From TrEMBL:
InterPro entries in UniProt: GAF-like_dom_sf
The name this protein goes by in its record: Uncharacterized protein
Length: 87
């Protein structure tokens, strides 16, 4: 590799590390964990130019549940949302 490519690679890696450090700090400082996770998913999705970002939680019986999801504009969420209205 030439020096220009080495420098570009190092710069990209540094930017990614800074971004992740910032996300961890923001999550740590969030007053509400769910809000912090949702903000972090949005930031990661936008940073990586993704259509969606997920968090899955695994239970003791080895099943996984999609507990958090961020979707880009125009992307249909895949997370199951159940709303119960009490009358």
């Amino acid at each position: 590799m030439n020096n220009d490519k080495d420098n570009a690679t190092l710069y990209a890696e540094l930017e990614a590390e800074r971004f992740m450090t910032d996300q961890i700090s923001l999550l740590h400082e969030a007053e509400d964990l769910a809000d912090g996770i949702n903000f972090m998913l949005k930031s990661i999705g936008e940073f990586t130019d993704a259509d969606r970002a997920y968090v899955f939680e695994t239970s003791e019986n080895h099943t996984s549940t999609n507990t958090y999801e961020w979707c880009a504009a125009g992307v249909t969420p895949q997370i199951l949302r159940i709303f119960i209205f009490l009358l």
